Amino acid sequence: MSCDNGTAKPTLTADQVLPVQYGELNDILGFHLRLANVALFQDYQATMGDLSLTPKQFAVLELILINPGTSQIGLAQSLRMDKATMMAIINKLEARNAIERRQSKIDRRRQELFVTEDGQKLVDTARQLRSEHEARFTTRFSADELKMLFGFLNRIYAGAKIPAYEEDEA
Amino acid sequence: MSCDNGTAKPTLTADQVLPVQYGELNDILGFHLRLANVALFQDYQATMGDLSLTPKQFAVLELILINPGTSQIGLAQSLRMDKATMMAIINKLEARNAIERRQSKIDRRRQELFVTEDGQKLVDTARQLRSEHEARFTTRFSADELKMLFGFLNRIYAGAKIPAYEEDEA
DNA sequence: TATTGTTATACTCTATAACTATA
DNA sequence: TATAGTTATAGAGTATAACAATA
Prior knowledge:
Two copies of one chain form a homodimer.
Chain A: H1 29-48, H2 55-66, H3 72-78, H4 83-95, E1 99-103, E2 111-115, H5 117-138, H6 143-157
Antiparallel strand pairs in A: 1-2
Helix pairs in contact in A: 1-5, 2-4, 2-5, 3-4
Chain A binds a DNA duplex through helix 4.
């Protein structure tokens, strides 16, 4: 109903030796997206395991690096999560001395966030490991294909609402 | 390092009015994949909310429909999750009379799984709602683009290992 | 011995709600 | 009144380990 894929529908490869047929699921975007996510995450963990830095913690570190002094609220919005959830991530990163909070002098409600020297070292190591992890997947694509894939994914999440920060439905 | 995207790198669109720069994250496949997943999941929940059928529960129903009599182990492998996790999903679906367990007569360790009449009705309703949800995203792509996207995602998870069922590392 | 299902448990992630201090 | 941060808490999802029945 949503797309024509009568003969060319992608199915799981034989080397997975899976015991079931996928049927209707082969037409579901979210199903394939999730499998891709799981595959990526499992490889991420196998590669980064020793660092014990989750993808989200890593993303937060990168965001603070490129936006020094940003707030927890800003980060939460950017990664589509609740401020209390972000709080937990920030706490963990602070506990291992990767970032620090400094109360803003302009608006004393705000905690400005910065990456410490230790945090920078952590990021450097993590980037190195991650680039190995990334390569295991990106090498499956040509440069043009990769550009297309990123564009497609962007088209999926572009314009997404952030429920916690929408105005009330009146 | 992993791919060239000097000028054409996909960035977040302006209509999201996000307060931060994404920096290095723009080059990370997993980051875009996750944002796409979040966007899709939020729309899924908004659409299917009343049915209270998670994407995984839905997937399990579809899998049992296309593989009547399949086992919990088979389902767990197919969806890359632990057998104990699958157990919880099966229990929930059985509790609302969507599926039933029948002990196999050939191998009495196995519970063969079947979708009940109630379960079929649930699937019918869910499919209807989901097709509306799907359309909100698939209409952003041409038929050819969609075929490419599915193929790309398949390329990412093809050959993924299922850790729980690999042989021991000796 | 190995496998299927099961149970108990614990851990992580997440959001909600209520609170504080500021604005 | 509204916002940034905080805390407590509860729910969902997940995996691990141990076990029973069966192969």
